[in-house]
Amino acid sequence: MSPVPFGARLRAAMDARGPLCVGIDPHASLLADWGLSDDVAGLEAFSRTVVEALADRVAVLKPQSAFFERFGSRGIAVLEETVAAAREAGALVLMDAKRGDIGSTMAAYAATYLDPASPLFSDAVTVSPYLGFGSLAPAVDLARENGCGLFALALTSNPEGQEVQHAVRADGRTVAATVLGHLKAANADAASRGELGSYGAVVGATLGDLSSYDLATGGPLLAPGIGAQGATPADLPRVFGDAVRNVVPSVSRGVLRHGPDVAALRAAALGCADEVRTAVDEVRTPVERQGL
Ligand SMILES: O=C(O)c1cc(=O)[nH]c(=O)n1[C@@H]1O[C@H](COP(=O)(O)O)[C@@H](O)[C@H]1O
């Protein structure tokens, strides 16, 4: 039997738990604020607390691999435990690794995150299309095979991204629009079935008006930048327009700063998910609001 596609699983999770992704970003400064040591023991305590607080109630958890990798193999071991525990508790895990390389190497990255036999197997992974979208083909294929998803960097939340992503090609399209076009093609099958696609774009919530871009890729739009980078849930309709229905807002420090108290972490995440729901409801028609 073929696995349920990631897009369908994500839609179900967002409907059930609210449209929110919380990042697990164990910054050294957060470890200190939580009274934890800046070492593997601190990393482990931090990650376990976030999973305990949120994995059974938010739609998506997004461990940021860099903060685990900085502790070497023992940090990766904590990452493995974190992914497994979060999935076990019912969250979808989006590994934030932003991988990208030539196709033959990309196949190994794809196997790392999207092969069920891998200790880092996740529901989805962030990828960089800046070696050419076609170089991601092994990840696109493996994701399809295993019911996983990808989130390709299209319009990132950081201002430096513009020099690459807004660059205009010889045919007049921007680089970012080209990435969005590839994702739309990859999601076409799911769209023809009326389902959310499994191939997402990363589009920063910090970017202001994006009406010059076709964000209707048929897939999810991961929107980092809420909280510490200055965007708020109320900004989402203005930034994403009608595409806001497919937005998965992502917040890391804005929620994590409420730890280590489990109840406070939960309250922060659920409060944020409620704010997102309210903002998204603004652009829904009355018929959609009644679920008709
Ligand atoms: O792919 C991402 O998640 C990502 C893309 C992007 O454009 N901007 C961005 O901030 N991120 C990640 O989202 C998280 C943002 O963290 P906060 O600023 O603390 O909410 C970090 O882990 C970033 O690496």
TrEMBL record:
<dbReference type="InterPro" id="IPR011995">
    <property type="entry name" value="OMPdecase_type-2"/>
</dbReference>
<feature type="active site" description="Proton donor">
    <location>
        <position position="98"/>
    </location>
</feature>
<keyword id="KW-0456">Lyase</keyword>
<feature type="domain" description="Orotidine 5'-phosphate decarboxylase">
    <location>
        <begin position="19"/>
        <end position="268"/>
    </location>
</feature>
<dbReference type="InterPro" id="IPR013785">
    <property type="entry name" value="Aldolase_TIM"/>
</dbReference>
<comment type="pathway">
    <text>Pyrimidine metabolism; UMP biosynthesis via de novo pathway; UMP from orotate: step 2/2.</text>
</comment>
<dbReference type="InterPro" id="IPR001754">
    <property type="entry name" value="OMPdeCOase_dom"/>
</dbReference>
<dbReference type="GO" id="GO:0006207">
    <property type="term" value="P:'de novo' pyrimidine nucleobase biosynthetic process"/>
</dbReference>
<dbReference type="GO" id="GO:0044205">
    <property type="term" value="P:'de novo' UMP biosynthetic process"/>
</dbReference>
<dbReference type="InterPro" id="IPR011060">
    <property type="entry name" value="RibuloseP-bd_barrel"/>
</dbReference>
<dbReference type="Pfam" id="PF00215">
    <property type="entry name" value="OMPdecase"/>
</dbReference>
<dbReference type="GO" id="GO:0004590">
    <property type="term" value="F:orotidine-5'-phosphate decarboxylase activity"/>
</dbReference>
<dbReference type="InterPro" id="IPR018089">
    <property type="entry name" value="OMPdecase_AS"/>
</dbReference>
<keyword id="KW-0210">Decarboxylase</keyword>
<keyword id="KW-0665">Pyrimidine biosynthesis</keyword>
<comment type="similarity">
    <text>Belongs to the OMP decarboxylase family. Type 2 subfamily.</text>
</comment>
<protein>
    <recommendedName>
        <fullName>Orotidine 5'-phosphate decarboxylase</fullName>
        <ecNumber>4.1.1.23</ecNumber>
    </recommendedName>
</protein>
